[in-house]
Amino acid sequence: MARRSSLSIRVVEGRNLPAKDITGSSDPYCIVKIDNEAIVRTATVWKTLSPFWGEEYEVHLQPSFHSVSFYVMDEDALSRDDVIGKVCLTRDMLAEHPKGFSGWLSLSEVDPDEEVQGEIHLRLEVLQSEAGRRLCCTVLEARDLARKDRNGASDPFVRVRYNGKTQESAVVKKSCYPRWNETFEFEVPEAAGEQLCVEVWDWDLVSRNDFLGKVVFNVPGLQAVWQEEGWFRLWPDKSKPREAEGNLGSLQLQVRLRDETVLPSSCYQPLVQLLCQEVKSGPQDGKVHLITLLDETTTAECRQEVAVNLVKLFLGQGLVKEFLDLLFKLELAKPCEPNTLFRSNSLASKSMESFLKVAGMQYLHAVLGPTINRLFEEKKYVELDPSKVEIKDVGCSGLHRVQTESEVIEQSRQHLQSYLGELLAAIAKSAPACPAVVRATFRQLFRRVGERFPEQQHQNVKFIAVTSFLCLRFFSPAIMTPKLFHLREKHADSRTSRTLLLLAKAVQIVGNMEAAVGRAKEAWLAPLQPVLQRGIAQMKDFIAELVGIEEKEELDLQNALTLQTLVVKEGPLFIHKTRGKGPLLSSSSKKLHFSLTSEALSFAKTPSSKKGGFIALSNIRAAEKVEEKSFGSSHVMQIIYVDEAGQWETAYLQCKCVNELNQWLSALRKACANNPEMLCSYHPGVFRGDKWSCCHQKDKTGLGCDATRHGVTLQEWSDPLDPDMEAQLIFRHLCGLREPMRDKYRELVETEDPPNGPLSPPEEAPLPEGLGRLLAVLRDLEDCHRRARPGPPTAPRPLLELQT
């Protein structure tokens, strides 16, 4: 049994942001921090005070996290980026919204006294002697303190206050992981009603000291237990009153916290087996299928999530093709028109859309990537709508002239035709590269639609059924927003966005297989008529090839794919070599190409060159961040591993940005999740000279000064399947549908017209076997959760007074 927490985050947009540039605008982006640790950074939206991001992230993390913060920044090319404001959501606030928080929040000013982080290790004792009672506070160490100095560290010291008296510790220079091991004693009066306050400060020589956080203790509560020792989270000082709340603009967010208790696999087997049996049995005449009830009772707002969970579950069971085929049959059994087939947001449509993202993203990148990259690099002006054409000067100085509208449209037609032609050619030759399971699923869809609409006038319907998913729900959205499909790292500028939109529209027209563009809403797309007609013919040939592969050849291709080693992540990284007594940044640092598979992390000079070496995943013990001051960069990670001789080694690898850093860490942590000897602590600094730069320990092999963060990962389309988690999410969803599914079944029974008349009132109609078994399985799973649930917690001792 394991408790797992995750945050679903969508940074939607901002509005009314203040201008930070002399042009009267800003270049805003967002940094998302969890407990003050940067997890993701959105793309920058240039020259706007009302940016739209629309970026989504799923973060898996430890259940003990406290808050998630959103910092809106203004990017500057020549100076440090400006902080516009922030929004902070605590864990308790998110827990009050089980279905997730969604809405606008005003940005608040970033107060340095509130930007605290980390923990402090204390031992507190009340000693009784003849002279009276004494309060002893031993300050042992601290970890992960806020970095207040330009060198990426702080110079922390501790200030202890009690009963009007103050004592201070020594200053530990250049460390966010200081060790003091100092004891402070205070006399405790008879009426001990005072609080003990332990504050951590950053010492500065020429300016005022910076506040790093505090912990406040209730001394009467401490006397009841006499001794207390542990790690305590540092809290900010009380917030200052906001005089002008809301003048920094606002941010629209969608954030959902999910806490799940995942049981052992054996507990979910009855549910998984029942769902698999329902898929294998298929639809039966005169009976209401369990999947039909699930489809009819799942609300639109959570249908996408349920579709993803089901697709991943059946992928893990090897039945995704059969599951989707069942959905096709059930959808086609309903009254439907050929021209609206699979255009709704039914479970079938959402499941197929999710399946393509899970199984076909690598294929999408291979097909669209070259054209999208070319379009971003060329930044051509493309506009076919006469009402939006911008007339501009052309030609060299002294000989320039104004282009006419027709010239701009003709030039735009040529550019767009070139992009579209290149893209359609890439699609046309991509059938062999399409994943075998995707081809097999499209072949089933093609066949089912052909059987449902066999008439001659509907011969195009089976082709359109395929393109309704491949073009309209997969290719076109990725073309319009390549950042959201990981095709590009940044959002497109306004000119490139317009070109992408026109290209996506053209692909939609080809996918719709419209005979004439003139019938389209945008009649001004008519200049593309010839290339679109050729594209429709190309698309039909491509689909015929895609679905025409024989079953035996499909099986051979599938077997060949399973023998290949899947690349989880790859890309260039800078490697910092070990030199002298420690890993120092030097001019000999190299940029190498790294590749992470399910077996090893390997590296080479270039993607195509011979591998220069590798680290077996089974030998990795930790993958963590490195302090900024260690190499002068905040984007360095360390991989701690054991070499073939059994010696401990550390590789220091530098990424180009915070997103790439966390993506690599996430991929490595997931790949090593089952390693039995993962470390619980590590050193976030480097061993330089004769000591660690983080905590100043002189024992190179000593215990690490910070806790590892194996549980913090980002959800990616290439994640390994987690069948227990998917089963748990489906179970939780089904628990809320028990009564709606009963009611929907009775409603469907009531509307049917059995040949011998109704045998009993709908309320008394016996439940179908599948639904009855499902309800029993859900009850058993609920019992398993109740047995696994810990007993009621004991009342906490009134030791800590948390500051808010």
From TrEMBL:
Comp. bias regions, Pro residues: 755-765
Pfam families: BTK, C2, PH, RasGAP
Domain (Ras-GAP): residue spans on this chain: 302-512
Keywords: GTPase activation, Metal-binding, Repeat, Zinc, Zinc-finger
InterPro entries: C2_dom, C2_domain_sf, PH-like_dom_sf, PH_domain, Ras_GTPase, RASA4_PH, RasGAP_CS, RasGAP_dom
Keyword Ion transport (UniProt): no
An annotated GO BP: cellular response to calcium ion
Ranges where the record places region Disordered: 750-769, 785-804
SMART domains reported for this sequence: BTK, C2, PH, RasGAP
Family annotation (SUPFAM superfamilies): C2 domain (Calcium/lipid-binding domain, CaLB) (SSF49562), GTPase activation domain, GAP (SSF48350), PH domain-like (SSF50729)
Record-annotated C2 domain positions: 1-105, 116-232
MF (Gene Ontology): GTPase activator activity; phospholipid binding; zinc ion binding
PH domain segment(s): 566-673
Protein name: Ras GTPase-activating protein 4-like
Organism: Dromaius novaehollandiae
Gene behind the chain: LOC112987347
